[in-house]
Amino acid sequence: MAKINRRARSFINDFREFAVKGNVVDLAIAFIIGGAFGKIVTSFVQDLIMPLMNPLITLPGQDWRTISIGPGIAIGRFFGSIVDFLIIAFVLFVTIQALQKFKRKEQVAAELPSSDSHLVAQERLTEALNHLTQTLETRNPQI
Questions:
Q1: Neighbour-count burial of 67, counting CB atoms closer than 10 A to its CB (0-12 exposed, 13-18 middle, 19+ buried)
Q2: Which CATH number fits domain 2-112: 3.20.20.450, 1.10.1200.120, 1.10.10.10, 1.10.260.40?
Q3: pLDDT in tens, 98-140
Q4: Which long-range contacts (CB under 8 A, 24 or more apart) does 90-98 make?
Q5: Which of 33, 21, 41 is nearest to 86 (CA)?
Q6: Collapsing DSSP states into helix, strand and coil, what is residue 1?
Q7: pTM attached to this predicted model
Q8: What's the Rg (C-alpha) of the chain?
Q9: Which residue among 7, 86, 128, 130 has its CA within the 20 to 30 Å range from the CA of 71?
Q10: What is the pLDDT of residues 42-70, one digit of tens each?
């Protein structure tokens, strides 16, 4: 009985450590934000983009999303889902590209070298000495 209690406590402690780790919490937050962002993107596609696209893809006498082949094969809805996916993928691509461009600008600003002329001269001198040492070693291997 004592072994079962120890195993249960060990299992509970292991699970607690796993669930409270930063990665799991970050994943949960990302999942919730992703769901909310998905709703925003879906609304963007359905309410703003598709009303502009529908007149371009019209069929005489019916909505192109209601086309079906035989009973129960809704090919219009399938093509509509493909169009929705392509639009969502494009919007996400543009958003991610903009975020990456913004991050690159931040990284470049953070990586600007110091303009201390003494430090720059010292780095150049060190590089020249290293290069000279390598050249001498290749010419005279006894050194």
A1: middle
A2: 1.10.1200.120
A3: 988 888 887 776 666 556 777 888 888 898 888 888 888 887 7
A4: 91/41, 91/44, 91/45, 92/41
A5: 41
A6: coil
A7: 0.45
A8: 31
A9: 86
A10: 787 778 877 887 777 777 777 777 788 88
